[in-house]
Amino acid sequence: MGVLPLELSEVSFRAGGRTLLDRISLEIGEGPRTVILGPNGAGKSLLLRICHGLLGGFEGTAAWKGPDADAARQRQAMVFQKPVMLRRSVRANVEYGLKLRNLPLDDRRERTRQALERAGLTGRAEQSARQLSGGEQQRLALARAWALRPDILFLDEPTASLDPGATGAVERIIDEIHRSGAKIVMTTHDLAQARRLADEVIFLHAGRVVERRPAADFFAAPESPEARAYLSGELLW
Ligand SMILES: Nc1ncnc2c1ncn2[C@@H]1O[C@H](COP(=O)(O)OP(=O)(O)OP(=O)(O)O)[C@@H](O)[C@H]1O
Protein backbone atom coordinates (compact mmCIF):
# COMPACT_ATOMS: atom_id res chain seq x y z
CA MET A 1 0.00 0.00 0.00
CA GLY A 2 1.27 3.47 -0.74
CA VAL A 3 0.79 6.63 -2.73
CA LEU A 4 3.03 5.66 -5.64
CA PRO A 5 3.18 5.66 -8.58
CA LEU A 6 3.15 9.35 -9.42
CA GLU A 7 2.13 9.92 -13.01
CA LEU A 8 3.02 13.04 -14.94
CA SER A 9 1.26 13.41 -18.23
CA GLU A 10 2.23 16.05 -20.79
CA VAL A 11 3.41 18.47 -18.10
CA SER A 12 4.53 21.82 -19.49
CA PHE A 13 5.45 24.94 -17.56
CA ARG A 14 5.73 28.30 -19.24
CA ALA A 15 6.77 31.64 -17.77
CA GLY A 16 7.93 34.93 -19.21
CA GLY A 17 7.30 33.71 -22.74
CA ARG A 18 9.62 30.70 -22.26
CA THR A 19 8.76 27.02 -22.17
CA LEU A 20 10.66 25.80 -19.13
CA LEU A 21 9.22 22.29 -19.02
CA ASP A 22 8.07 20.80 -22.26
CA ARG A 23 5.47 17.98 -22.36
CA ILE A 24 7.00 15.78 -19.70
CA SER A 25 5.36 12.39 -19.26
CA LEU A 26 6.83 10.17 -16.57
CA GLU A 27 5.79 7.47 -14.19
CA ILE A 28 7.65 7.46 -10.89
CA GLY A 29 7.09 4.18 -9.10
CA GLU A 30 8.36 2.50 -5.97
CA GLY A 31 11.84 1.09 -5.86
CA PRO A 32 14.91 2.38 -7.61
CA ARG A 33 16.64 5.58 -6.56
CA THR A 34 15.99 8.07 -9.33
CA VAL A 35 18.52 10.82 -9.98
CA ILE A 36 17.57 13.71 -12.24
CA LEU A 37 20.56 15.11 -14.11
CA GLY A 38 20.89 17.98 -16.54
CA PRO A 39 22.73 21.25 -16.99
CA ASN A 40 21.90 24.47 -15.13
CA GLY A 41 18.47 25.71 -16.06
CA ALA A 42 17.32 22.40 -17.57
CA GLY A 43 14.24 22.43 -15.33
CA LYS A 44 15.23 19.90 -12.66
CA SER A 45 14.06 21.96 -9.68
CA LEU A 46 10.85 22.94 -11.44
CA LEU A 47 10.12 19.29 -12.11
CA LEU A 48 10.74 18.29 -8.48
CA ARG A 49 8.58 21.14 -7.23
CA ILE A 50 5.72 20.11 -9.48
CA CYS A 51 6.07 16.49 -8.31
CA HIS A 52 5.97 17.59 -4.67
CA GLY A 53 2.98 19.87 -5.25
CA LEU A 54 4.85 23.12 -4.56
CA LEU A 55 4.32 24.63 -7.99
CA GLY A 56 1.03 25.07 -9.77
CA GLY A 57 0.11 26.82 -12.99
CA PHE A 58 1.44 24.08 -15.24
CA GLU A 59 -0.27 22.38 -18.15
CA GLY A 60 -0.91 18.64 -18.11
CA THR A 61 -1.46 16.53 -15.02
CA ALA A 62 0.55 15.23 -12.09
CA ALA A 63 -1.41 12.60 -10.15
CA TRP A 64 -0.72 10.03 -7.45
CA LYS A 65 -2.10 6.69 -8.50
CA GLY A 66 -1.38 4.37 -5.56
CA PRO A 67 -4.07 2.90 -3.29
CA ASP A 68 -3.34 5.56 -0.65
CA ALA A 69 -3.29 8.45 -3.13
CA ASP A 70 -5.67 10.47 -0.94
CA ALA A 71 -2.91 10.66 1.68
CA ALA A 72 -0.25 11.83 -0.80
CA ARG A 73 0.22 15.19 0.92
CA GLN A 74 1.14 13.47 4.18
CA ARG A 75 3.27 10.73 2.67
CA GLN A 76 5.93 12.73 0.90
CA ALA A 77 8.77 14.97 2.03
CA MET A 78 11.31 17.23 0.38
CA VAL A 79 14.81 18.37 1.32
CA PHE A 80 16.34 21.45 -0.29
CA GLN A 81 19.87 22.61 -0.92
CA LYS A 82 19.63 25.14 1.89
CA PRO A 83 17.59 23.77 4.75
CA VAL A 84 15.28 26.18 6.53
CA MET A 85 15.54 25.65 10.26
CA LEU A 86 13.00 26.83 12.79
CA ARG A 87 14.46 29.09 15.45
CA ARG A 88 14.17 26.25 17.95
CA SER A 89 16.17 23.30 19.21
CA VAL A 90 17.27 20.45 16.99
CA ARG A 91 14.72 18.19 18.69
CA ALA A 92 11.91 20.71 18.27
CA ASN A 93 12.65 20.98 14.56
CA VAL A 94 11.91 17.29 14.15
CA GLU A 95 8.95 17.25 16.53
CA TYR A 96 7.27 20.19 14.87
CA GLY A 97 6.54 18.35 11.61
CA LEU A 98 5.14 15.41 13.54
CA LYS A 99 2.92 17.67 15.60
CA LEU A 100 1.51 19.18 12.42
CA ARG A 101 0.48 15.65 11.47
CA ASN A 102 -1.31 15.21 14.77
CA LEU A 103 0.72 12.21 15.89
CA PRO A 104 0.31 11.25 19.55
CA LEU A 105 2.99 12.57 21.89
CA ASP A 106 4.61 9.18 22.55
CA ASP A 107 4.93 8.51 18.81
CA ARG A 108 6.39 11.94 18.23
CA ARG A 109 9.00 11.44 20.90
CA GLU A 110 9.97 7.98 19.72
CA ARG A 111 10.18 8.95 16.05
CA THR A 112 12.21 12.03 16.94
CA ARG A 113 14.60 9.99 19.06
CA GLN A 114 15.10 7.46 16.25
CA ALA A 115 15.52 10.08 13.53
CA LEU A 116 18.10 12.06 15.52
CA GLU A 117 20.00 8.89 16.33
CA ARG A 118 20.08 7.81 12.69
CA ALA A 119 21.29 11.23 11.65
CA GLY A 120 24.00 11.23 14.33
CA LEU A 121 22.47 14.22 16.11
CA THR A 122 21.42 12.74 19.44
CA GLY A 123 24.09 14.70 21.29
CA ARG A 124 22.88 17.94 19.70
CA ALA A 125 19.18 17.52 20.43
CA GLU A 126 18.88 20.49 22.79
CA GLN A 127 21.11 22.85 20.83
CA SER A 128 19.66 25.62 18.70
CA ALA A 129 19.22 24.27 15.16
CA ARG A 130 20.47 27.48 13.61
CA GLN A 131 23.82 27.05 15.34
CA LEU A 132 24.54 23.80 13.52
CA SER A 133 27.04 23.69 10.69
CA GLY A 134 25.75 23.42 7.12
CA GLY A 135 26.37 19.68 7.05
CA GLU A 136 24.68 19.16 10.41
CA GLN A 137 21.71 21.24 9.33
CA GLN A 138 21.32 19.09 6.25
CA ARG A 139 21.45 15.95 8.41
CA LEU A 140 18.75 17.52 10.56
CA ALA A 141 16.67 18.28 7.47
CA LEU A 142 16.97 14.60 6.54
CA ALA A 143 16.07 13.51 10.07
CA ARG A 144 13.04 15.79 9.94
CA ALA A 145 11.96 14.26 6.64
CA TRP A 146 12.69 10.71 7.76
CA ALA A 147 10.65 11.07 10.94
CA LEU A 148 7.60 11.62 8.74
CA ARG A 149 8.13 8.11 7.29
CA PRO A 150 7.42 9.27 3.75
CA ASP A 151 6.69 6.91 0.86
CA ILE A 152 8.78 9.23 -1.29
CA LEU A 153 11.51 11.73 -0.52
CA PHE A 154 12.42 14.46 -3.01
CA LEU A 155 15.89 15.99 -2.65
CA ASP A 156 16.98 19.06 -4.60
CA GLU A 157 20.79 19.24 -4.70
CA PRO A 158 21.04 18.19 -1.06
CA THR A 159 24.84 18.34 -0.87
CA ALA A 160 25.55 21.29 -3.17
CA SER A 161 27.17 23.41 -0.47
CA LEU A 162 28.81 20.66 1.60
CA ASP A 163 32.37 19.42 1.88
CA PRO A 164 33.23 15.79 1.02
CA GLY A 165 32.91 14.53 4.60
CA ALA A 166 29.51 16.11 5.13
CA THR A 167 28.45 14.94 1.67
CA GLY A 168 29.36 11.36 2.57
CA ALA A 169 27.35 11.57 5.79
CA VAL A 170 24.32 12.90 3.91
CA GLU A 171 24.63 10.19 1.27
CA ARG A 172 24.71 7.48 3.93
CA ILE A 173 21.51 8.84 5.47
CA ILE A 174 19.82 9.06 2.06
CA ASP A 175 20.80 5.46 1.46
CA GLU A 176 19.36 4.36 4.79
CA ILE A 177 16.13 6.22 4.15
CA HIS A 178 15.90 4.36 0.86
CA ARG A 179 16.60 1.02 2.54
CA SER A 180 13.88 1.76 5.06
CA GLY A 181 11.44 1.71 2.15
CA ALA A 182 11.17 5.26 0.82
CA LYS A 183 11.45 6.06 -2.85
CA ILE A 184 14.26 8.56 -3.50
CA VAL A 185 14.08 11.18 -6.26
CA MET A 186 16.94 13.65 -6.24
CA THR A 187 18.80 16.17 -8.35
CA THR A 188 22.52 16.70 -8.24
CA HIS A 189 25.34 18.28 -10.22
CA ASP A 190 27.83 15.93 -8.65
CA LEU A 191 28.32 13.16 -11.20
CA ALA A 192 30.38 11.03 -8.81
CA GLN A 193 27.48 11.24 -6.39
CA ALA A 194 25.02 10.31 -9.12
CA ARG A 195 27.11 7.24 -9.89
CA ARG A 196 27.13 6.30 -6.21
CA LEU A 197 23.45 6.85 -5.51
CA ALA A 198 21.48 6.44 -8.72
CA ASP A 199 19.74 3.25 -9.75
CA GLU A 200 18.22 5.08 -12.68
CA VAL A 201 18.85 8.45 -14.33
CA ILE A 202 16.40 10.87 -15.84
CA PHE A 203 18.33 13.27 -18.02
CA LEU A 204 16.70 16.64 -18.67
CA HIS A 205 17.76 19.18 -21.22
CA ALA A 206 15.97 22.42 -22.04
CA GLY A 207 12.85 21.31 -20.21
CA ARG A 208 12.56 17.95 -21.95
CA VAL A 209 13.27 14.42 -20.75
CA VAL A 210 15.93 13.33 -23.18
CA GLU A 211 16.83 9.97 -21.60
CA ARG A 212 15.64 7.76 -18.78
CA ARG A 213 17.72 4.66 -18.24
CA PRO A 214 19.34 2.43 -15.62
CA ALA A 215 22.24 4.41 -14.18
CA ALA A 216 24.92 1.90 -15.18
CA ASP A 217 23.77 2.03 -18.81
CA PHE A 218 23.45 5.80 -18.80
CA PHE A 219 26.97 6.35 -17.53
CA ALA A 220 28.53 3.60 -19.66
CA ALA A 221 26.93 4.69 -22.92
CA PRO A 222 24.59 7.68 -22.93
CA GLU A 223 22.34 7.50 -25.97
CA SER A 224 21.65 11.15 -26.70
CA PRO A 225 24.19 13.67 -27.97
CA GLU A 226 23.05 16.04 -25.19
CA ALA A 227 23.82 13.51 -22.43
CA ARG A 228 27.15 12.62 -24.01
CA ALA A 229 28.08 16.30 -24.14
CA TYR A 230 26.89 16.84 -20.57
CA LEU A 231 28.93 13.94 -19.19
CA SER A 232 32.03 15.15 -20.95
CA GLY A 233 31.55 18.67 -19.59
CA GLU A 234 30.73 20.24 -22.93
CA LEU A 235 27.02 20.93 -22.48
CA LEU A 236 26.63 24.09 -20.48
CA TRP A 237 22.88 24.73 -20.84
N1 LIG B 1 8.76 30.26 -10.95
C1 LIG B 1 9.47 30.53 -12.05
N2 LIG B 1 9.06 31.45 -12.94
C2 LIG B 1 9.76 31.72 -14.05
N3 LIG B 1 10.91 31.12 -14.37
C3 LIG B 1 11.38 30.20 -13.54
C4 LIG B 1 10.70 29.86 -12.34
N4 LIG B 1 11.42 28.93 -11.70
C5 LIG B 1 12.50 28.68 -12.47
N5 LIG B 1 12.48 29.44 -13.57
C6 LIG B 1 13.45 29.38 -14.68
O1 LIG B 1 13.28 28.09 -15.25
C7 LIG B 1 14.53 27.56 -15.69
C8 LIG B 1 14.74 26.21 -15.06
O2 LIG B 1 14.92 26.40 -13.67
P1 LIG B 1 15.28 25.22 -12.67
O3 LIG B 1 15.59 25.86 -11.37
O4 LIG B 1 14.23 24.19 -12.69
O5 LIG B 1 16.60 24.64 -13.34
P2 LIG B 1 17.59 23.54 -12.79
O6 LIG B 1 17.72 22.50 -13.84
O7 LIG B 1 17.17 23.09 -11.43
O8 LIG B 1 18.92 24.39 -12.74
P3 LIG B 1 20.12 24.44 -11.68
O9 LIG B 1 20.87 23.20 -11.93
O10 LIG B 1 20.87 25.65 -12.09
O11 LIG B 1 19.52 24.51 -10.32
C9 LIG B 1 15.57 28.60 -15.32
O12 LIG B 1 15.84 29.35 -16.47
C10 LIG B 1 14.89 29.43 -14.25
O13 LIG B 1 15.37 30.75 -14.26
UniProtKB/TrEMBL annotation:
MF-aspect GO terms: ATP binding; ATP hydrolysis activity; phosphate transmembrane transporter activity
UniProt keyword Nucleus present: no
Organism superkingdom: Bacteria
GO biological process: phosphate ion transmembrane transport
Pfam name, any one: ABC_tran
InterPro entries: AAA+_ATPase, ABC_transporter-like_ATP-bd, ABC_transporter-like_CS, MetN_ABC_transporter-like, P-loop_NTPase, PstB-like
Residue span, ABC transporter domain: 6-231
Family matches, as SMART domains: AAA
Gene Ontology CC: membrane
Keywords tagged on the record: ATP-binding, Nucleotide-binding, Phosphate transport, Transport
Family: Belongs to the ABC transporter superfamily.
Name the UniProt record assigns to this protein: ABC transporter ATP-binding protein
